[in-house]
Amino acid sequence: MKTVKILYETDFNLWLEETARLLKENKLEQLDIENLIEEIEAIGRSEKRGFRSNLEQLLLHLLKWKYQPNKRSGSWKSSIIEHRNRMLDDLEDSPSYQPYYEQIFDKCYQNARKYAEAETGLPINTFPEICPFPKTDVLTLDYLPKDDNN
Q: Most buried of the four, 25, 66, 96, 135, by CB within 10 Å?
C-alpha cells in the first residue's frame, strides 16, 4: 500500500480513510502529521466561515424584515429561522463560538447592510450604522424585529 503521505497527493478520500484507520488502531507513527494538522486547521477555518455566513444571512433577513414590512414573506421568515437554528446548533456543538460571535458581530452587520442595500434597492443609510437588534435577540428563537411604525 502507498504511504499515507503519497495518498494525500494522489487520492484525498483514501488518505482520509487511511488516516482514520491509523488513528483508530493507534498507529500514530504511520500518520501523515503535517497534512493532518493542515486539514484540521482548514476544517476550523471552514466552520468559522460557515458560522459567519449564517450570521450575515440572518442579519440581512432581519434588516429586510424590519425595513421592508410590506414585502415580508414566508421565505424571509424561513431564512431567519434556518440561519438562526444553524447558529444555535453551532453554539451548542461548540460553546467556544460565543466569544467569536461577539467578535464578528459588528463586521457581519456591516456586511449585511451592504447586502440589504443591494437586495432591496434602498439606500445604505436606510439601515443604521449600528445594529438595531440586540445581540441576544438575534439568537432568540421567536424574535422578529418590528418595523419603525409598530
A: 66
